[in-house]
Structure formats: structure tokens, C-alpha cells
Automatic annotation (TrEMBL), chain B:
PANTHER family in UniProt: ANAEROBIC GLYCEROL-3-PHOSPHATE DEHYDROGENASE SUBUNIT B
Keyword Cell inner membrane: no
Pfam families listed in its UniProt record: Pyr_redox_2 (PF07992)
Keywords tagged on the record: Oxidoreductase
Top-level taxon of the source organism: Bacteria
Protein name as annotated: FAD-dependent oxidoreductase
Keyword Transferase: no
Record-annotated FAD/NAD(P)-binding domain positions: 4-311
Amino acid sequence: MDSVNGVNSVTGAEGTDHADHADRADRTGRVDGAVSGNVDKGGGMSGASPYRLVGARPEPGFEVRVDGRAVPVVPGQTVGAALHAAGIRTWRTTRFGDRRRGLFCGIGVCFDCLVTVNGVENLRACLTEARPGDEVTTS
Amino acid sequence: MTAYDLVIVGAGPAGLAAAGVAARAGLRVAVLDAGARIGGQYFRQLPDGFNAARPGALHHGFSTFVRLREALGGADVLLGHRVWAVEHGPEGGFAVHCLEGREERARTVAAARLLIATGAYDRVLPFPGWDLPGVMTAGAAQALLKGNLVLAGRRVVVAGTGPFLLPVATSLAEAGAKVAGVFEAGGRFGLAPRALARPGKAAEALAYGYRLARRRVPYKGGRAVVAAHGDGELTHVTVAKVDADWRPYRGGYETIECDTLAVGYGFVPQLDLPAQLGCEIAGDADGGPVARVDRRMRTSVEGVYAAGETTGVGGADLAALEGVIAGRAVVADALGAPAAGDPEDPRMEARRRRLAGFARALLRAYPVRDGWMSWLRDDTLICRCEEVPYGRIKEVRDLGAADARSIKLLARPGMGWCQGRICGHAVARLAGEDPAPPRRPIAQPVRLGDLAAMDGRTLDDDT
Amino acid sequence: MPDVVVIGAGMVGAACAYYAAREGLTVTLVDRGSVAGGTTGSGEGNVLVSDKEPGPELDLAMLSCRLWTELASEAREVGGFEYEPKGGLVVAENDEVLRALTELAGHQGGSGVVARPVAADELADHEPHLAPGFAGGILYPQDAQVQPMLAAARLVRRWPGVTLRTGTEVTGILMEGGRVTGVRTATGDIPAGAVVNAGGTWGGEIAALAGVELPILPRRGFILVTEPLTGGPSGGPFVASGPLVRHKVYTAAYVTNVASDSEGLETSAVVEATQAGTVLIGASRERVGFDRTVSLPVLARLARQAVALFPALADVRAIRAYCGFRPYCPDHLPVIGADPRVPGLYHACGHEGAGIGLAPVTGLLVAQLITGAEPELDPEPFSPGRFAGAAAWTA
Ligand SMILES: Cc1cc2nc3c(=O)[nH]c(=O)nc-3n(C[C@H](O)[C@H](O)[C@H](O)COP(=O)(O)OP(=O)(O)OC[C@H]3O[C@@H](n4cnc5c(N)ncnc54)[C@H](O)[C@@H]3O)c2cc1C
Ligand SMILES: Cc1cc2nc3c(=O)[nH]c(=O)nc-3n(C[C@H](O)[C@H](O)[C@H](O)COP(=O)(O)OP(=O)(O)OC[C@H]3O[C@@H](n4cnc5c(N)ncnc54)[C@H](O)[C@@H]3O)c2cc1C
Ligand code: FES
């Protein structure tokens, strides 16, 4: 799955800006770029990125497992944001038409983003802050 | 269980401002919010984990937030508390029923007075393909960025109507997204002369315009995204040139590649809680329901106040001002003296009138026109939850469903997970009505086990 | 000029229009709101024989049950509605209740009700997720479930002889020489040979327009709806090990509550799954006038009873609750038939918590009475004449 934004920077995405951070990430045992698209590719113009905009120096992150796949998280991010950052934009299909769903309202209103976390069904991914060790399953 | 003098639901600018005022006057105050951090929608904060050196870069008027935060004083801030119901307490006052955290721990907070500052959510309109992943609300794009430092997409189209599109497009562009275009269904800078008469706001709009132009983001009025396409996920949208009623001109279509569409047609105030208590709900300038309040932000139900977007969509400045007024009013009503300042202070009132007048002018300048109905195809979903296509709505209209409620009863739009929050406006308009006040006795899903545990218990047994 | 004006496009009015048209009459069906916008849109769709004591209402229910089956099979060709003969399971908390329940079932058998005793250790075969500890139960295979709103709307369209006028409030009953000659509406008079009052909970107000009293009062009921559960093959709510709820399941206390005269709150949850994947938990009964204020204590009570029946529901979330107002008469019988006080006026209202189930038979009887055909069942117990002793109001 190709990331369309790839801004989660667990692996030291800010490149030269944050070499220290990259070191930290490596020390936590993760391989740089292990998760496709989970590096800050900068994006649009002049290497602008959300991280650069606010001068973020994120703490070492952690991973959650989403249907068995590792997804990096910066502490405090929601499950939905982490998935989105990892290029995963669909994680549920609907009951009747098997339609694909991901984030829509982003603030807990639409219930499009439902996931199962550690066996608890129907949690809103956009509201649920990810925790180390979370097992996320989708339907 | 001892009651708080004031419980505030919503830690946005309105709720925070009120909390500060009331707490400083010595009242016992609790601010509840579903979110993990204070700030609400406008001042949505990054998690500490990012160690942002310039958190204000994502916010216009960040200093206001800092002031609000610092003024909170001794107010208890209860985060991660989703309020699913409010009711009158057995001996006066109110019981505020919450679900705390991911575990959804049931908890009831008692309040002598209640301020409802629950804000609003994006108003959206259906169009073919709007349920493809990659299509999201403009507010969602903001929330991803402000609260998670995640860019909604690499190549983004921003569309809809209203002044909110500008900051959304600007932040996306400045955070590194390629914004392929901003499409305002109303006229270009529909801001209208009336609106521009407020110098601060005009300057703000111009500043956004300038920042967008600098990044070569095209901004076009009279254009709407009338369809989204993609095989499973969004790959491109159809943008149509639309007339004053938002009907596409023949041949005026273009296709734009994008992985993300951020779309919003204004906001819908979050009124579930005041409606539960029977507060009077009135129609705003755009016909949408809002909590009716007096000059002191008191609703029609004694002891219940409302401030911010719940009283009408007007932006963060107005919300904060209303919060101050509400805080002062609560203090005056609770202590019998205006210890926190006169809630009817003429200068504040004048400012509120000005800001509210401006907000109403904006609502009138950016109306949602019914021409969007011409974008629909029979298989376009109107209700995303129950997957009700437009064709089905037409069918039950033919069967005699003459109003929005009957359409809902016969075809099920609004019966699902979101309880009509997303499709409610569209269904009402399809029935030719203004959206009705919400009737949601259960504002957030609550486990039957927790509900069952309330049986036969009085408020005093709690906590 | 239509032969008949039916006032009220709820389930009962729709059935009256349907059967009258089937008898060859032309019908104008008027409602001040939409089709199915009254109590029909705020109740449930249980078609029950299990909850009725032997007597006239059970006879009515048995016939209606058969008519529902016919209507549903017809429906396949002409645009359907959900109708599911899923059966009801009534469970008893203890041996004493089970004895009473078994006795009732025995009596009901005389009216044609099929009732199969289920021993305690067989309950799980029928409802695998039922809580343990019940003394036993009775399975009623004739109990069924219908989606009443759609059913009402579809029935109205089934015969060309029916004209539906929504958004048309009846403000007066036209009379000439003491006989009903039509109705007055906000948008003009509609002359007709006969007028049927199918105004449900508002049937008393319509009767008053004709100068007669009909004691119909509201009895409020709340219903809880859960989140949709993972869809199984039939689309119903599933948990890992199969459908969570298969029948309509309720405790024997329900039967006593239905018949109760108490003003106070009574609840005895009826739990059932819907095709939309949700679980419906209904319904409370209390007399509080037309008060729509949500009562959390009532919802809490319903939830507790539902969880007591199906412990797995404790972790299922409620997402919605709504209420409606059942139209009840003091003697708990519906009012069906010609009003002896006002020739030309027929009543079809006051069905309390059984208006969906009893709608077809009501429509059939009213149509037969209007055309002078031999009624399929003796309507006397339901006659409006039973209130004729009450002082007639002057119009
Ligand atoms: C997603 C989104 C993003 C927005 N972003 C911007 C922006 O970037 N710029 C801009 O100018 N305007 C933005 N707005 C508009 C915004 O509504 C106002 O500018 C401003 O935030 C309103 O302030 P408020 O205090 O009335 O409510 P809000 O700031 O909306 O605060 C309301 C708070 O109430 C909480 N809440 C609601 N219901 C419950 C409940 N049942 N239980 C517990 N807590 C609850 C919410 O979590 C929220 O924190 C946005 C709106 C939305 C919906
Ligand atoms: C919570 C609850 C659960 C229930 N569960 C069941 C169940 O499981 N099974 C069952 O069989 N029954 C059930 N019922 C009862 C059932 O819903 C009612 O008995 C039935 O809907 C009555 O139908 P009706 O057509 O008589 O009335 P309604 O559906 O109320 O129709 C009456 C119509 O008359 C119209 N009207 C009134 N006055 C005027 C006027 N002046 N001019 C024009 N139009 C007028 C109204 O607008 C309305 O549409 C339940 C009820 C409730 C509240
Ligand atoms: S995205 Fe709408 S609820 Fe999560």
C-alpha cells in the first residue's frame, strides 16, 4: 500500500533535522522504513511537512498491530490517524454493500472509522488513542 | 455525591472561557470533554509526544488559547469523558452521565448548573462517490493535522462552501500537501460586502488568500465537486461549474486528480444534550437548529446555559466571548451577585452583537443551495450507515412519506450508527424541510450493562 | 366522491383502506401527517398471539395472524415488506410461573394457538445465548414480526381504489340529518358515504368532532435499539457462536403487564433481533399523557431486563431510544365497528399495544360492516356501542 502522506515519523523521518530522533527510533529496535510509507517524504513544496511546520521532535514512538501488520504511532496519536499516516485509508467494509470505509468526520460523529481494539468491537478509530501493544482488527 | 456548582460540557473556546471565569469567582467547576486534550475543534492541541517547538503554527490566535488555558485556575478538567445523557437530578440540579476513556467506564457527575458548549460538526452533502475512502470532511483534515500531525493527503482538493475552506486549504498547503484547488460552491470569496465590513475578518480572509496564492493554490468560486471517483479509494473528482442554485452548467466539468477531498458545507451545532433537557431550539439564519439563549446565555430551562457553536455557528472568537458571558451569568445566578463581572456588560454585549451579526451575515453569504440534489444519482448513498441510496428515498416519497421523519421511518436514513448526524441535513432538505432539532436520548453509544446498572439507583449512590 | 373516507394513515387506517378497496369501494385515506407517521412509526411490529388470554381479543388476533400471512405472501409479487414468522419464546423465572404459563398455554390451545412447552434444559436449543436458570418456557411458532411502516405504506398502494392524501388534517365531520356525509379538512370538504375513524391514540378527538365520546388514552412506551452487530448469513445480529437472539423472547411477566390497569411504570422487556442487525428491546408501559421527555430510569429498567435474559447483551451498546403512545381503552379492547350514535361513522382505533398485529382483521371487519357483508368474526365485543351509555357530547 503506497502512502499518500506518510508523515508519521517514528523512524526519524525529519531526516537531517532530527538525526537524534532517528537514532532513538533505531534504539527502540525498529528498522527504518520497515513500514511502507511511514516516513516523512516531505510532500508538496520546498520540503514542507507538518513536522517542520511546528518544529516537532517527536518522542520515540511505538507500534500497534493492525490485522497483524505493524503500524507506527507517535505517542498521543489516535488509531485512525496512525492508520491514515501509514497509508491505510480503508479498514472496514459495510454490512450490506461491502463498501469500504475509513476516516470521514475525524471527530467521532460519523462512525465510519469503527475498529476492534484488543477484542473490543466498534470503537471509533478517530477517537481512540493508540497504546503500545494494541491489537487492532478490522472487518 | 457532592455536586459541582457548574459542569461544563465541551472544552473548546466557549467552555474554557466560561470555566476560567466561574472558577476564579470561587465556584466549583468541572469541564468535561470527550477529547484527550483541551482546546475543542479550533484549538485542537497536539499530543505532548510531538514536542512541537511552534505549536501555534497550526493556529490563528494561539495566544488566545494560551490565555484560556492559563485562566482555567482551579477548575477540574475531566478529559476523555463522553457525555451520553444529561437529566434533571432527583433533588434539583443535573446528572451528567459520562463514559470515560476507551474502557467506557460509566460515571455520573452531579451539577447544580450546566453549561453546554459542545460545539459543532461539519455539515456535508451527499454526491456520487462521497463515501469513497479519501473523501473526508474539511474538519477531519484539520483534526488530523492539528491533533495528530498527519497530513490528510498528498494531493488534496478542498471543496464546499464557507469561510472555513480557506484555513483548511492554507494549513494543508503549508504543511506540505499539494492542494490541487479550492472550490467554493457559492460565489468567489462569497464573503460579500457585509462580511468584509468587519476589518479584522476581511484582513484574515485576504491573508489566507495571499498565503494560498503564494503556494499557487487555485481558488475558484461557483464550482463544486459533484462526484468522486476511484476504484475502492479516491483517485479523482469531477468539479462542475455551478449556477446560483448550484446546478451544474452543461459542459462545465473538469476532472482533477487527487488522493484526498476535504469537503464541508458549513457546520451543524451539536444539540443532543440541550434537546434531552427540553431546552428550546430555534432556527438560525441558515434555518438550522440552535439552542435559544437570552443575553446571559441562559437556555429556556432553568440552570442550563449554552455558549459557542451550540447557540449558532460563529467561530472561535464569538465562542470564547459567549463563554465569558455564560461564566459571568452562572456566577451571578449562583452567588446572587455579579462577582465575576456584569454578564450584561455593555461593551461585551456590543462586541457580541457585532460578532454574532457578522456570523449571521456569513451564514447568509454562504447558504447551501438545493441544486446539490441534481448531483445525485439513484445509487448515490444518502445515508452512509444504513446504506440508503437516493433511489430508495424517492421510492418512499412516492409511497407517501411526506416529511423527513417518515422518510426515515420507511427508508431508514439516520437509523444507523451516526443517528442522522451526517445525513440529517440532506434528508430534511430532500423532504423540503429545514432540519429539525435532534431527538437523541442517547448521545453516545452506551453499553446495555452500564445502562442496566443504573436501574433503581439514585444519583447519590454514584461515585 | 369516494365511498369511504378513512381518517388516519397508520397501520390500522392502511388496512381499512386496503380491505375496503378490495371489497370494491373507493377510498380516500387522509392523514394530517405522513403515512405511518403516528404510533405506527414509533412502536414495534410484533404480531403476537402468545400474550393474549383466551377471549374475544385472542380470536381477533388468531384471524389477524392468518391475514398477515396472506398479506405477506401476496406482498412478494407487489413490492414487499419485512414479515418474519420467527416465533415467540416465553420463559418462566421459576416453577410457579411456569405452571401458570403452561396453564395459560393450555387454555390458548382452545383458540387455535400452537404452544409447545420447552423444558429448562431445552431452552438453549432454541436460544443458545439465553441466561441459565429459567424454569422452562413455551414456544409460540405463530408469533411473527412485521416492519409496520413499510407494510402500511405498501398496503395503501396495493389497490387502485385508494387515494392517499397526506398533510390533510380533518377538522370536522360533516353531518346531515344526523348522518355522516363526509369530512371537513383544512384544504376542503370531502363528501363520502362512510367515514372511518382510524385515528389511533387521537381517535377520541376525532370521535369528539362527531359529537361522541370515545375514551381513548395514551399509554407511553419506550424502546431501546442497539448498535448493529456483525451480520450473519440472515443479516441478523450475530455473536461469534451464531445469532444472538432468534425469536421474540420475553418473560412471563409481560403477559400480566399487558393486561394491567396500573398507571405506574411497568416494564418487561421483549428482546428480538431485526434484519438491520440491531436488537430491539421493548417496551415499557406507563400512563403519563403525551409526555415525550426521555426517562433514563425506564431505559435502565429495560436494559436490565434484557441483560437478564441475554447476558451477552451487557457488552452490546444501545445507540437509540424512542417512545410512542399506545391508544388504549379502559377495558383494553379495541373499538371496531359502526357507532350506533352516529350513522355512517365507523371506528377502528384503540388497539393499544396490538394495533399492528390486529390491523388486518380490523380492516377486514370494518370493510365487511360497511358493505353489509357477513363479518368473518363476531365484532360485538369491540362495538363502539359499549360506550354509548356515556354522555354524548354535543358538537
Ligand atoms: C472538525 C472541526 C474542525 C474545525 N477546525 C476549525 C479551524 O481549524 N478553524 C476555525 O476557524 N474553525 C474550526 N472549526 C469551527 C469550530 O467549530 C469553531 O471555530 C470553534 O471551535 C467553536 O468553539 P466551541 O467552543 O463552540 O466548540 P468546540 O471547539 O467545537 O468544542 C466543543 C467541545 O465539546 C466536546 N464535546 C462535544 N460533545 C460532547 C459530548 N457529548 N461529551 C463530551 N464532550 C463533548 C468536543 O469534544 C469539543 O472538544 C472546526 C470545526 C470542526 C467540527
Ligand atoms: C413502544 C410501542 C411498542 C409497540 N409495539 C407493538 C407491537 O409490537 N405490536 C403491535 O401490534 N402493536 C404495538 N404497538 C402498538 C401499535 O403501534 C399501535 O396500536 C398502532 O400503531 C396503532 O395504529 P393506528 O393506525 O391505529 O394509529 P396511528 O399509527 O397512530 O395512526 C393514526 C393516524 O391518524 C392521524 N390523525 C390523527 N388525527 C387526525 C386528524 N384529525 N386528521 C387527520 N389525521 C389524523 C395521525 O396523524 C396518525 O398518522 C406498540 C406501541 C408502542 C408505543
Ligand atoms: S471518522 Fe467519523 S467517527 Fe471516526
